[in-house]
Design a protein that fits this description.
The chain contains 2 helices and 11 strands. By secondary structure, it is mostly beta strands. The strands form 2 sheets. Strands 1, 2, 3, 4, 7, 8, 9, 10 and 11 form a 9-stranded antiparallel beta sheet that branches.
């Protein structure tokens, strides 16, 4: 379940005043079971999401003498194709790549939204080619954000992220069951 809280974030960016709920299915498929003849395809992985976003409210806006409705329920879907250099180096063949190249994961992500009702809008989304660098304690990523059609918008952007793996930084505090588990 993904929940986007209303009235959070910068008003200048046009944040929604309502909360949106998105029950989501996450899926993934690695290719490690391919035959040895295709060993360089084994580091590929396909991941994705499929969910329905349900806005906490539907609003009507005046359009001349009629009313148009917006905030539609929408199918949120996306996928990513990744190539894991760490997997290649550790499980397929050590090519002797130096750091940081041996820790890179090139990828391309697609993030799409298709409205179901009330708006008459079309599918919008972005294609995001980029690269991740991964260590034991963090992951750093950079991606371009490219609109897939004119309805998404005209501008190309970028995303930069840093994820810190607190369960690896503090293994005695995080990364184990809180109740009824082995808390070694």
């Amino acid at each position: 379940m993904d929940v986007d809280l209303g009235d959070t974030g910068s008003k200048a960016l046009g944040v929604d005043s309502f909360t949106t709920y998105t029950p989501t299915i996450y899926y993934a498929k690695g290719f490690n079971e391919l035959p040895i003849q295709l060993k360089y395809l084994k580091p590929f992985a396909l991941t994705g999401t499929l969910g329905v976003s349900i806005p906490g409210q539907s609003a009507n806006i005046a359009n001349g003498s009629t009313f148009a409705s917006f905030n539609p329920d929408a199918l949120q879907w996306g996928f990513a194709l990744e190539y894991s250099m760490p997997y290649l180096q550790e499980h397929v063949e050590d090519l002797g790549l130096p750091r940081p190249f041996r820790d890179l994961i090139p990828l391309v992500e697609f993030s799409m939204s298709t409205p179901f009702d009330r708006s008459g809008e079309t599918t919008t989304g972005t294609m995001n080619p980029g690269v991740l660098w991964e260590s034991k304690f963090c992951q750093i990523g950079a991606e371009a954000v490219i609109p897939v059609n004119a309805h998404t918008g005209p501008a190309i952007g970028a995303v930069f992220q840093v994820q810190i793996f607190i369960d690896d930084l503090f293994p005695k505090v995080f990364g184990h069951p809180l109740f009824f588990g082995d808390n070694k």
